Amino acid sequence: MGILTFLMGAAAIVPAVCFILLVFAFKAISGKGKRAVLAAADASVMIFFFSVYIKIMTLWNPLPSIYLFWSAAAWTGVFVLFYWKTRWKRPRAAFKKMWRLSFMAYFAASSVLFLYGAFLSIAKEFS
Question: For this UniProt entry, which segments traverse the membrane (predicted)?
Answer without folding.
Answer: 6-29, 36-54, 66-84, 105-123
